[in-house]
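Chain A, query sequence.
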Amino acid sequence: MKTLDLRSDTVTQPTNAMRQAMADAIVGDDVYGDDPTVIELELTAAAQLGKEAALFVPSGTFGNQLAILTHCQRGDEVIVGDDSHIVWHEAGGSAVIGGVQLRTLESHFGQLDPQVLEGKIRHGIDIHEPKTGLICLENAHSNGRVIPLANMQAIWSIAQHHQIPLHLDGARIFNAATHLGVDAKEITQYCDTVMCCLSKGLAAPVGSLLAGSQTFIARARRLRKMLGGGLRQAGVLAAPGLIALHTMSQRLEQDHANAQALAQALSQIGGIEIDLASVQINMVWFKFSRNIAPATVSAAFAAANITVNPPEHGCMRLVTHWQIEHTDIDRIVGVMRQLMTSN
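Chain A, predicted structure.
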């Protein structure tokens, strides 16, 4: 029986084309700046993301934290949504690496209120206060929602007015672009820098990219080395990244359609509550309306050779990706239907 893994789109295996590209990659030494495949990847990413330059980094967390470190002075304050990946899932790195404090704002499905945000900006005029050194947004959001361009534009205007840089956690920016039906550059026009992941829905085995101005990326390259991110024959990792950008970014609509189909089917099962309007990319979030032990849920799926993250506080997430086919949905739904019937 085919194994299904719905924990995240980070579990994706590289495609056969990616494996072959890794074997055939022409490499150099990236610290010396002479790995041709890495150079091609960075130029491609910069063009697709609408920025002057890009830098290949080991992970999305690395890219976000490198952006904060490069933008900010120690003791600065970073304004960010209270449900963002930077706050919840980056191990407090902003304090340890960047030496900054995070000022979190309440978000509405990932959106920040521009007026509230502007009221929180501090310029460090009062010696008691930190200075706002950066604003961070996330699109697509890790809650599965896509932030409307109008919201990003409003916050971008505020950032420009106050001369504060804006960084976008665009780990799944190509998912956001797919949902909005726009080119990724239509999103990144509202930020100074952006990080995007190659190793999530784009299926590359390793790596992310940080993009921005030539000056910013030059500073970030030095700091990447300081943090231990200097890569050598990294062309073997950049090669599948090129396939991720050119090919895998063009098929994300299939993952979104499968997530929609899965959500629709789950919504028909008693005991499950799901907001179908919130299923905008490849993530299906839902709640159980009655108490079911997380271990019971995990065991039921494991028995069907399906790996899931157990629910937390009654909420559960299933994520589609290129290795989850439309024909797999009935099997997933069948396990859930049996689970809810017997509990």
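The domain at 251-342 is CATH 3.90.1150.10 (Aspartate Aminotransferase, domain 1). Residues 168 and 200 are 17 Å apart (CA to CA).
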